[in-house]
Design a protein that fits this description.
Layout: H1 3-10, H2 16-33, H3 37-47, H4 51-56, H5 62-65, H6 73-85, H7 87-94, H8 96-120, H9 132-145, E1 150-153, E2 157-160, H10 161-179, H11 182-199, H12 205-220
Antiparallel strand pairs: 1-2
Helix pairs in contact: 2-6, 7-8, 8-11, 9-10, 9-11
């Protein structure tokens, strides 16, 4: 990101990638929320990720479009708050390109796992939509990257990044258990597992690929003769002109 772009978003306290993700969900969700019943149904049929749409009708693009379709206004407000105050920290640490990859991987993993579980349990109309899988995946990533970082929860409760992650995950597990939202629980779990894999230094595929390339490059290197026991070749002074 250039200096001009950084200064443009510095006053907003939000990064470019987070702003684009927030804008996509906000725009599409508001269109759905402000539409009449027939239009909502039509939008859901073509944009919402459900087992029926994905596996029966072959509308695989809903795995991507459903991520930006939130049907509850309160949840939409919470998403905007997290994207405004919390998620930009990760984008500043990773950079915008890696942040986009994180959004795509965790959102796709969560949505696909939720739809597959719903298909297996014959809940064909259950939708996996909105940024919830990505939001919870971001919390896991924050807990890994900023494990010891002090955090003021709502400006009152002092926590570390790891403690914040454990607290929110515990509340999420309790909520899924009480409401028995098993499909959403699977979606959240898959997204959080994907976040742990791509963020962890031990299990990250990107880091594993870089280590393999480094080891391969080292195997091709040769040790050049030199050092204390090396005798330099005799220089032919006749070849050189001053």
């Amino acid at each position: 990101m250039s200096v001009k772009q950084r200064s443009r978003f510095a006053g907003l306290r939000i990064t470019r990638g987070a702003l684009i993700v927030a804008g996509l969900e906000l725009g599409l969700s508001l269109v759905w929320l402000l539409s009449d019943g027939a239009t909502k149904q039509q939008l859901s049929d073509w944009l919402e990720a459900t087992p029926a749409n994905v596996f029966e009708h072959g509308r695989v693009w809903t795995l991507a479009t459903g991520v930006f379709l939130e049907q509850q206004f309160i949840a939409l407000l919470l998403h905007m708050s997290v994207l405004w105050m919390f998620v930009p920290t990760l984008e500043r640490f990773w950079g915008t390109a890696r942040f986009y990859r994180f959004v795509a991987i965790t959102s796709l993993a969560g949505t696909l796992a939720g739809c597959a579980f719903a298909l297996a349990t014959q809940k064909m109309a259950v939708a996996v939509s909105g940024l919830d899988p990505f939001i919870y995946a971001s919390i896991v990533a924050f807990g890994i990257v900023y494990a010891r970082q002090p955090v003021q929860f709502f400006g009152v409760l002092p926590l570390t990044g790891r403690q914040l992650m454990y607290g929110i995950l515990g509340f999420l597990a309790f909520s899924v258990l009480i409401q028995q939202h098993w499909v959403l629980g699977v979606a959240y779990g898959a997204a959080m597992l994907a976040a742990a894999v791509v963020t962890s230094k031990r299990w990250s595929p990107g880091l594993a690929w870089k280590r393999w390339r480094i080891s391969r490059a080292r195997s091709r290197l040769k040790v050049m003769s030199g050092g204390k026991g090396h005798v330099p070749p005799t220089r032919d002074e006749h070849k050189w002109l001053n």
